[in-house]
Write a structure and sequence with these properties.
The protein has 362 residues and is an alpha/beta fold. The protein has 16 helices and seven strands. The protein folds into three domains: 106 residues, Rossmann fold; 125 residues, no CATH class; 107 residues, Arc Repressor Mutant, subunit A, CATH 1.10.10.60. It is elongated, with a radius of gyration of 25 Å.
């Protein structure tokens, strides 16, 4: 989601531009629209944006000065000029300041839409390029992390994937300093690297695009940037790991694997209840002992550990996305014994529920 700051001294123009932006791609207008450059900079002192759309002539601080200040203070941001003045010098100066385009008022909505889509593509392209560059520099020194992922995917093991994802997130974050906005692109680069490595296993996969719409509001305070982009990256890595394992499972798609998938499906649909292994085996038309042996052989974990994994992943979602208390989460996923739930959570994620929440949101 590309967050857009609108700067124009006309409220009507801001309202019109806001409607146009919302109709173009994955862009959204932040609540902090501003009447001049000085107000825009004041807002940016405490909030995050990716793109600034600004007029040229405004009271207090004009658009060109604003672009210059943004370039100095917020190098990840891009700017686009929408102006009433068909002035060559204005246009020339704005382009010299690396503005994406110079659009004249009254605005042609089709032209603006094309420009906004191109701006979104430019922002994502540059971040992907930066992420790829970082990956090429850093990965040779951290090959062991990649090998851990490859082993997990090749053996279809998902039991320890959540902790591996948290470890990987912290590794990626250590590569970027305070450039948290690169975490999603870096997560994509990490997943693409895995796909390239797994091509020798005949795995073919085109990753679905990750979105950050689940977390946070349109307006993102500076104090929440790290937490926001960390959560987005975790979601991206989790989505990617599921797609990778699913694709690898497709490579190994046999009658046996289809049976195992039926077991997993039943567990996913009933994990909040007491699951009897004999009844589970009957549901998939298998002998209980054979089912348990086959499940462990094909997934690397026991049926019971898979049930626990489903419960823990649901617990994690409730922990990060709701205000539920620990005992409420335990009850929600089928645990009456709260200490036993906390003990299982710690075994699964390597830390207690409250410690995990603090670590992810700190």
């Amino acid at each position: 989601m590309i967050r857009v700051l609108l700067v124009d001294d006309s409220p009507l123009i801001r309202e019109s531009l806001s409607q146009s932006v919302e109709e173009a791609g994955d862009l959204t207008v932040v609540s902090g629209t501003a009447a001049n450059g000085e107000k825009a900079l004041t807002w940016l002192d405490s909030h995050y944006a990716d793109l600034c759309i600004t007029d040229i002539r405004m009271p207090v601080m004009d658009g060109l000065t604003l672009i210059e200040r943004i370039n100095e203070r917020y190098p990840w941001m891009m700017c686009l000029v929408v102006s009433s003045y068909d002035d060559f010098e204005y246009a020339k100066t704005s382009i010299q300041l690396k503005a994406l385009d110079y659009i004249l008022k009254p605005v042609d909505n089709r032209l603006l839409n094309r420009t906004l889509v191109a701006a979104e593509g430019r922002i994502n392209q540059e971040r992907s390029r930066d992420a790829a560059s970082i990956m090429l520099r850093k990965l040779p020194h951290h090959r062991s992390f990649l090998e851990r992922w490859l082993n997990q995917v090749r053996t279809l093991q998902t039991g320890t994937m959540p902790l591996l994802i948290v470890d990987t997130l912290e590794l990626l974050e250590s590569w970027i300093g305070h450039q948290y906005y690169l975490l999603n692109a870096l997560s994509d680069a990490w997943l693409q690297m895995l796909i390239e490595e797994l091509m020798e296993d005949k795995l073919r996969l085109e990753l679905k695009e990750g979105k950050d719409l689940v977390f946070g509001e349109r307006t993102l305070p500076i104090s929440e940037i790290r937490s926001h982009f960390r959560l987005c990256a975790v979601q991206r890595l989790e989505e990617g790991s599921h797609q990778l394992v699913a694709a690898m499972r497709g490579v190994r798609d046999t009658q046996t694997m289809r049976k195992i998938e039926l077991v997993k499906q039943y567990i996913r649909e009933h994990f909040t209840k007491d699951i009897n292994l004999q009844e589970l085996a009957e549901q998939v038309d298998m002998n209980k002992t054979y089912m348990c042996t086959l499940f462990k052989q094909e997934t690397g974990i026991t049926v019971w550990n898979y049930i626990v994994a489903e419960r823990m992943q649901k617990a994690r979602s409730l922990l990060l996305e709701t205000s539920f208390k620990v005992y409420e989460i335990a009850n929600e996923i089928g645990y009456e014994d709260v200490p036993y739930f906390s003990q299982n959570f710690k075994k699964y994620y390597g830390m207690t529920p409250l410690d995990y929440k603090r670590r992810m949101k700190s």
